[in-house]
Amino acid sequence: MNNIRIEKILGSRRFSNYWWATSILLGGLGFFLVGLSSYFKRELLPFTKSSELLFLPQGIIMTFYGTIAILISLFLWSTIIWNIGGGYNEFNHENGKITIFRLGFPGKNRILELTYSIKEIQSIKVNIQEGLNPKREIYLKTKDKREIPLTRVGQPMLLSDIEEQASSLAQFLGVVIEGVE
Questions:
Q1: What family, per the record (predicted)?
Q2: Backbone angles phi, psi at 114, to 5 degrees
């Protein structure tokens, strides 16, 4: 039997974030260049007639929206580069420890590393909520009633996947599962 189990957690480096960061950057650059074209009365974007726009009020608004979009895009690219939310869950029978590791924003709290004893774990809790904002989450429930989330943020997992992952983890840790009927 393998005594160490490591589950990688995908952070900000997922396809949807790359898609949105790129789309917002390109749209923002377009708006920004249209605004500048109206100010300088020169075509900075090919195949457009944006120099014919009045700078006040259309051009300045386009420049403003473009600047905001570029800043939002820079924020998204920063989270991708820093891999915010990425990390791993390590369940180690050899030393009797569970390690939850996540990356955050740069600074003194960049690294979040929580360590628990396997003996502290009471159960694996599965939280499933359907509806407009569905939640499908797995938690480590400690004997002092704390609940530590183990699943990634973002797209909800398939029910079969979350049930299989929870039962496999509960079997590995030798604890019961709560919340699955």
A1: Belongs to the Ycf4 family.
A2: -110, 135
Distance separating alpha carbons of residues 66 and 53, to the nearest angstrom: 15
pLDDT at residue 152 is higher than 80:
no
Identify the CA nearest to 147 among candidates 163, 171, 128, 123: 123
Taking residues 95-122, what's their average pLDDT? 96
Would you say how long the chain is, in residues? 181
Q: Which tokens go with 29?
A: 């650059």
Measured distance CA(119)–CA(95) in Å, rounded: 11
pLDDT given for residue 158 in this prediction: 85
Cis ω for the linkage preceding 57 (within 30 of 0) = yes
Residue ranges of the chain assigned to CATH 2.30.29? 85-178
d(CA 87, CA 15): 17
Mean pLDDT, the chain, whole residue set: 93
User: Tokens 């974030």 map to which residue?
Assistant: 17
d(CA 85, CA 162): 19
Largest CA distance in the chain: 73
- Which phi and psi (to 5°) does residue 3 adopt? -90, -5
Q: What is the CATH number of domain 85-178?
A: 2.30.29
Strand segments, DSSP code E, in 18-173 are: 87-92, 97-103, 111-117, 121-129, 135-142, 147-149
